[in-house]
């Protein structure tokens, strides 16, 4: 891959003494260009080249000639910077930043037409996003330190070793989306590792309010399955969940909360098998902040049968609440970060995008991958403002953040909200 040039402009020379300029040495303008090696090349030291423009007159009496020289230097640097934004036109007319990304456009078209209902944000999008996590989180340096295979992270093992990994209790149900994706994967001509993460990012971008997620290619496929017990369960303690994320990739408690924004478009099929497709908030078709609002409402009911492992009472008919979500929303280490997403769509988007980027390359060196994030379409804007479901209000909030009051939100008008199941694909 060609080297990229990044141009920096520095001003050195005159210094202030009190309120006076010291121009005894004259004014000097340094133009510096720095060469970096791009992804896919061997590492090398940065190479700096300096261009010196000098003048004997102080800046306050800068002559037109010196200003012209300065502008010329800036123009030269902008030309150098142009290499950073050079675009590639693919055979199908699509434009991207790297020729290696051209192979993704036919895959994206296939995903949208044959898996995501031509741009929908439905069950297959939810499940594809879930699969990105269940594949990537299968890595444990702690296990590797004991001399055992600790997993390869985002390496496609969950699809390549489906017969093994889908029998892990935490992966219950992911076999369905693996089987739906398999024909598309087989005709994609990209690795399973790349395909799983691409499908999740493209699907999420169909959802109103979602961020534009990172896409990388160049991952090597797994040669053995991930170890069991690397995927957190809804009945795990907060201590256990935070420790698992820290082990997998050094995720902070705030990043764990950010990743759980995925539940804003999620539904549960197997926590209570009597009510498949039960969403975690009242707007499962939108990537919004409702999940972070509604998990802090006082639970009063079970949407189906009570007594299921990993489930606690929810506040809205037709909505399911995981024990792990409830406890993370109320734990002192995570409660304020959880609440901070309420009615803050911009923070939700940026935090989830950053945490997803970190997750999607677990087990890989980012410098060895190609960034193809520009192939992801721009998601639709948010479709609604933060609110309480009809019949509920601030009085129903179980305040957990000790430092900041819960935001005041409007309540939907009309009869008490009841949430319909997410239709199957």
From TrEMBL:
Top-level taxon of origin: Eukaryota
Keywords: Calcium, Disulfide bond, Glycoprotein, Heme, Iron, Lignin degradation, Metal-binding, Oxidoreductase, Peroxidase, Signal
Site (Transition state stabilizer): 130
Top-level enzyme category: oxidoreductase
Disulfide bonds: 90-102, 101-372, 121-207, 336-401
Residues the record lists as binding heme b: 263
Keyword Heme found: yes
Regions crossing the membrane: none
Residues annotated as signal peptide: none
EC number(s) per entry: 1.11.1.-
Protein family according to the UniProt entry: Belongs to the peroxidase family. Ligninase subfamily.
Name of the protein in question: Peroxidase
Origin species: Polyporus arcularius HHB13444
Organism placement in taxonomy: Eukaryota, Fungi, Dikarya, Basidiomycota, Agaricomycotina
